[in-house]
Structures are given as C-alpha cells and as structure tokens.
Write a structure and sequence with these properties.
Chains A, B: Residues 367-505 form the Thiamine pyrophosphate enzyme TPP-binding domain. Two copies of one chain form a homodimer. Chain A has 512 residues and is an alpha/beta fold. Helix content of chain A is 36%, strand content 17%. The longest helix of chain A has 17 residues, at 65-81. Chain A is globular.
Chain lengths: 512, 512
Amino acid sequence: MRTLADGGVEVVFANAGTTEMHMVGAMDAVPNLRGVLTLFEGVATGAADGYARIAGKPAATMLHLGPGFAYGLTNLHNSRRANSPVVSIVGDHPTYHNVYDSPLTSDIAALGGWLRGSVRRPENAAGTGTDAAATLAAAVEPPGQVATVIVPADASWNDGGVVGTPAAGKPPQPVTQDVIARIADVLRSGEPTALIIGGPAVREAGLCAASRIGAATGARVLQELYSNRLEHGADLPTFPRLSFFPDQTIKQLAGVKHVITAGAKEPVAFFAYPDVPSCLVPEGAQSHALAETGQDAAAALVQLADLLAPDTSADVDTPQRPTMPSGPLTLKSWTEVVGALLPERAIIIDETVSSGTALPAATAGAPRHDVLMQCGGAMGDGLPLAVGAAVAAPDRPVVALVADGCAMYTLTALWTQAREQLNITNVILNNHAYGILRAEWGYFTRSPGPGDPNANPLFDLAHPTIDYVKLAQGFGIPASLATTAEELAEQFSRAIAEPGPHLIQAVIPTVT
Amino acid sequence: MRTLADGGVEVVFANAGTTEMHMVGAMDAVPNLRGVLTLFEGVATGAADGYARIAGKPAATMLHLGPGFAYGLTNLHNSRRANSPVVSIVGDHPTYHNVYDSPLTSDIAALGGWLRGSVRRPENAAGTGTDAAATLAAAVEPPGQVATVIVPADASWNDGGVVGTPAAGKPPQPVTQDVIARIADVLRSGEPTALIIGGPAVREAGLCAASRIGAATGARVLQELYSNRLEHGADLPTFPRLSFFPDQTIKQLAGVKHVITAGAKEPVAFFAYPDVPSCLVPEGAQSHALAETGQDAAAALVQLADLLAPDTSADVDTPQRPTMPSGPLTLKSWTEVVGALLPERAIIIDETVSSGTALPAATAGAPRHDVLMQCGGAMGDGLPLAVGAAVAAPDRPVVALVADGCAMYTLTALWTQAREQLNITNVILNNHAYGILRAEWGYFTRSPGPGDPNANPLFDLAHPTIDYVKLAQGFGIPASLATTAEELAEQFSRAIAEPGPHLIQAVIPTVT
C-alpha cells in the first residue's frame, strides 16, 4: 500500500473481504490513502475509471478473489477501452491453500488476462512491493491500462514486505516529424479527407488544432463515437461525432479519399450487421494514422496545424445557449434544459444511449465542461463514473445523465454517492425501455417484429415501471420526478445549488 | 433454440443485446420457451442456478458478449460450485468482425474457461444446433455444470441452421460394491469416524440412511457447510453443519480416525488463516470417499445403511416448532418467527451469512422444506436464487432470507420478482454491517482493530442506513419494516398469505 501511495495512488475503491483484511489494515498505516466503500464491485471499478479520467492520476480498486473481481470486470473492460490507468488489486488465497479448491478458489489470472493488461502475483511478502510498483508502472504507461496485481493472503499477513520504488511516469510518445510531414502532404493534396480525432486529441489543444486544419485544408473533422474525456462547450470548436449506426457513419465518410486518425482508431462498425462492412473506411480510400493510441495526438495536431494553417484560428462555439423549453419533456427539450442550466466547470457523465442524440448541440454553448463517456460499450458505467469523477474533483459539479436501463446495472453507486456526500446531480432518463434495442429491431429487417411474445418483453422496462425517486431515497439521496421542462429546470437548478447528491427521474418518450 | 427446447430447456433468463437479437426472435418460433428479463446479468445467472436446483432441469441464460457475460460470471461461479446444470448462451460478433476490435470485442472463451465447464463456439449457422446439443449434454451430465455456447451473430442471422439432437440425460454413476464394502469395514472398525454428507445426499433418502448408519455404528454424521438443495424440517433427520470457521471445524472433527465423505468434498478451510491448516481432516486420520461428486451418493448411503443397520430406523425430527418470541428482534428470535410460521412446501433461500446461525435449529420442526444455499461463497446469489426457484415452482412459497450486504449485489432481482409476480417473501436481515467481516477482524489477531480510519468504514453499512422498504417499493414490491418479533410475525404471515412478492426489512443486531 505504501508503494502505491508513493507512486501517486490516493484513493482505493473497495469491496474487500477476508483475503484483503491485511491490506485494508495496511491502508491505515499509510498516510493519504483513502478507502471508498462500494456495495458492488462494478461500482468500484467504474468509479476508478471516472477518478482516473478526471484526476489524471492512477486509481486503485480492491476486490475480493476471483468472484469479486468477476463482478468488477465489466467496468474494467470499459476502463480498458477508455485507457484509464487503474491498479486492480485482487486478494487471493495463499498458494498452499488454493490446491484444496475451497469454494471461492478460481483462476484469477485468467480474468486479469481477459483485460489484456499486466497481471502479476507476488508469491510472498518480500515480492509485493516490487510487484505493486511494476503494476502501477504498467497502469500509467501511456495510453494507460488496467493492470492487475493478485495478492495472496499470506503475502499480506507475513512479515518481510519491502516497499517498492514506483518508476517515474512516462510522457506519451511524440509523433515523428516524418509522419507529420507525410500527413501534411495528404492534407495538401486537395483530395477529400476526413480527420478523425479522439482520446487525448479531443481536449482544447487538439480540438483547436483540428479546427484550424479543417478550416485551412477543407478536411472534414469528425470526433470518435465515445471519448474518455471530451472538452466541450463555449469557446471550443465542436465536431460531429461518428455515428453508432454504421449506415450513418458510411454517409459521414462518403466520398473521402483519405481517413486520417489522431488519437482515434480507424472507424469500425460498433456491431456487425448483415451486408454492412465492418471497416468503415470507404472502399478505395487510404487510411493514415497521425497518432496511434499512446502517442501524443494533441501535440501532433498542433504541429500539423502550425505547418498547414499558421494564420488560421480555430472556429469556436460562441456562448449561445438554448432557450428554456416548456411543456412535456421531449428527447430534445430535456437536453435544452441541461444546456441552458449547466453550471461552470461541470463534468457531464454521458450514458444517455438512445436518449442523448440532441445533447452535444444543446451543450455546445454552455460553459466549458468535461464529458466522460462509457468507452467499452458495456452498460452500467454512468453512475460509477460519476462517483469517481466527484471524488477526484469535489469542487466541481458532476451531472450524471444516465439512461434508465443503464442505471440498473450499478444502482448501488447511489449509496456511495450519499455516503461520500458527492456533488452529483443524477438525471435518470426514463423512457421505460431498452430504447437502443427497440431501434436495433428496426435495423435488422430480417428479424421478427416487436409484437412477439418473448422478444417484445425483453426490451421493455415498463412492466412494472421503476420508481427511481423511491430507489434514490432508499439510498439516502433527495430525489424528484420531472415530466415537464419546467419541472426539470426547477429541480435541476436546485440540485446543482445544493451540496451533496440529488436524483431527478426525467420521464421522456422512447425513440421510435 | 429449438435444440435446447427439445432437450428440456423451458426458461431462458436473459439480458440480451444487439448480438442476441436473432436468438431472441428465434425464441418466439419455439413453443414453450419462456424468456424472463433481468436487469442485470448476475440476476439472470443466479436465477438460472435457483431454477435448475428446484426444477431438476437445465436452465439457460442469454447474455450479451463478453462484458455481459462478465457481469454474470460471479453467480455462474456459484452455480458451478452448486453443480447446477446451466446452459450459458453468450452472443458474440461474427468472427470476421472481431478482427476489427470494436468496443465490445473480447475473448469470451477465456471467461467461459474460467468456469471450468464446456465452452463451444459454432462458426456458422449449420453448426449451432450441434453445438447447442453438445452444450446441453455437458450441462446436464452428472453432477451438472455451467456449459457455455458462444454464438456469433452471423451464425444466428444466416440461414442454414440445423436443429441438433440432444443426447438423453445420463443418471449419476453408481458407487461400486467394492467401495461400499470397504467403507462398511471402516464403519464396523469401531474407530471414531465422521461421515460427512453433501450434494445429493442431503435429501430424504441420504439423510435417513446417514441417520441409520450413525445410530448403528456410532459414526458422527455431519453436513457439508453449504448445500445446493437440502431437505429439512419435520420428519427428517438433521445433522450439525461443518463450520465456516476452521477452528470450529477442527473441534467438530476432533478425535476421529476416519473421515468418510458422501456427495461432499473433503473438509477444507473456507479461508486460510495464519497457522491454521487448510485441510481439516485431522492429522493421522484416514480419508475415504464413499461417493465422489457425480456419483449417486444417496443410493450408496442407502446400500450402506441396509448393510450396516438393517433394523435401525432414522432418527427424525418431531414437529416441534419454536414458541413465538416477542420483543425486539435478536439473532435468535428472527429465526424462531420463521421457524414458527414457515408454510407447507416452502423453499428457503439461505443467504444469511453471519445472521443465520440459529436458523437450522429453528426450522428443524417446521413442515418439510428445501433450503438452497449459495455454494460458491460469492455474495449476491440470494435474491436471484429466489427468482429462479419461484419460476421453477410457482405453486410453492419461496422465503428468501438475505443479509443486507448480500442484497446489494443483485438488488434488481426484486424487479424481476415483481414483473413475474413471483410468490417470494424476501426478508432482508438488516444489521447495517458486513457482519462476517467484523467477525473476521476478531479472527485475525495480528490485524489492526476496527477503530482505524479506513478499515472500520469499509465494513460499515450504517452511513447512510439503507431503506430497503423504499427500495422494494421502487421496484413495485409491497414492503414493510420489522423491528420486533411481533411485527415480523404479522408481516411474514401476511406476505406468505398474499400472492406475489413482498419484502420485509428485519432490523437485527450485528454479531459481536
């Protein structure tokens, strides 16, 4: 624990058990190490993700053997896709005990391996510090990863631990001048070009540079679908996001001869569909990586902009905010309320799925804010991301915009929000359905329709309806129901103004 | 889907997504296949476990790619340890799509492998029926396992599927006469012997045979700690359970020269502790397996009893029920209320952890009932087990006794209980703590005490307190708070008498 603290870890999101007892005890021997209890491992892991993204520092999770780790894996998958630096600490039985296959025994390393990050397991107390240091180094090496250290209980309880020496963090690798020159030539060619920015390139420096490049060369600038931390709002350029649906993305990229990526991956279909390509780079177009994951995409864009557009300035959003809407909430009006009232320095958690299409436009004129999205496609990251973001930045208002289906995977995040009295305004977008799945039914023309006896109910959240107000109150969070724009506006303003967490159940129509 | 239905699968506990769309659609083409929606995969998998145990039939789950499977893994671990036959269906991208590493892509087979069961992945539509049949056969082969079939979306949506032929179920392997004769000799030796029964041997036939053996030979009969389906109550013999704490188990087995297991594994410590052995067979004692997992332990016990105790009858509990207690609930009195009021043909789900020590004695005189325990040691199985048991036996009252910490992992099981209007009386044992972890603090004498700034809060559920009544109401379940035995009795009786689910928050003291 001291090794991790020396290396910059300040918070451990934990759901510990018997095998972690001595590590829990050790936390109290280390100054400045704060344990945050979660009631479900998926909350701990999602919170670590949110913390790492906002703090810009490694987060730690502490989970209980293979089964506890398994509960937390899904949001670690989301963390992995967000390139968040997370040290995943998993307690295990001693090796001599595992041979007896007691009930909680399992192959923990196999679960760690599923995350494609570093997996270590010290065999004794003497090795724990070294392995902790190596795990932390792996976690923070650009672009960031989930690195797992499996700690046998006897390595915890025996004497002889040696504090490890965390390696100094490495900066992201610079892009070579050759690559920048080659991409500049592509952009000068005059051929239709799309520039897709993502990862570290969707913050101020990268956004402004991309805007200048687009203005000077005519390149179509697009944002990746999901960003781990997007800077957004007034005084920043905004770009269209790639679509979730591949037929839309195909339209977005139609006619281009070159696709340049900076901090983003080549565009691929989120899901496969019959007769739809997986790779969405148009046929015949060339693909060029300005900056791969782990490279300094923002700096590369700035260099490219200075080369191509020395005299062009970025096209920024002027602070036009939506007019306050009225009447029953619509898919558009709820976003206008948020856009009109978003406070200074907010952090938006966007797990709106099918209900948030109008959000980027509605918030483009709001005061500058960060937007954290769930990057791995696995639902249930929103409420935990809010926990982590609020722990990392207690002085900033966190606005968690979470679709009703998503909120159900990790609902107990609300308890941790209440316990830690985090400044989070949770807005549950309540359309009583897995709206995205209803949309997918329409997409699959060869599928049966939604009137079928099994299929239709499996996308339905209306029978019975879920009362998110009562659920929030059950966890100690003040909550209210909004069905009109006026109600949402009043409740949102109040929630932002009062300290601690709040929840608003915003009833909206489903996509059709 | 037709292959599975032909092989006896009737219910699919599902949280499906885009990659499972065509399988969801296919369910509607197959008569008698019922989809049950859960809002979190851990509920689906725990429900499948409960269903399989009570129905004595294979259950199926349908989950969404690796991240959905990951959310469900923990309760599949519990299922694996319970030897429940579960067909785990996981949708995947087509193979041609996975090479593009879109956000939800992962190594699903690695997760399936973690469960140590069969893992198959048909490559095309033509192979799905065969793989479904093989997966089902693996799931139901005694003793039962979690068998996974990963179905690429194009294997679902392409034409050319061929219905597979499910193999006929195999009976458990009989124990040979040689083994029975050898164990009979041990029992006739007059040396102190413990007979540990578990798995299929803790139902009527095995319990009665074990009782006769104990009475005739003086062997000390003990039950394994966690049983997948224990028959209990009036007119059945009851035996002490092995302890969770190894020092207690060591006392239970002190002095024996032979340990005979029947359907149970050799006793091992649940957790390791400094200076405590992992294997709890006393030093110098011999260990003998009458029946290994997958063998017909109950039949072997009956044969053994007929050999050793032809004229001895089983020592059954007479229907003595507890006197109704009064006053504030205690760790004993809550169990007496349940024991006094348990209806005919009940199914008890026992996830009471540190709060249920008095339960077996209090229910020994109640009408005969089944008790399902969580066998893998991973918390959060209770509420989902109740869902599955109630779906399997809609005409039987299900009583879910769940510790407050456990309820938080899979809380949304309550919504599925409400949606399906299942006859479940949920009693949340609310001691505002991870009581078992407080107990473990005391066990580790080398650990720091509970006054520490991080350690103590990490076992505490009182700040803020959780209002389970509001939570249940939020999911559409009538709920009430009981702080006295009188209140619990009145509310329990009413909940049992009314159809559909109910929840009682029973406030009890924590173990100290």
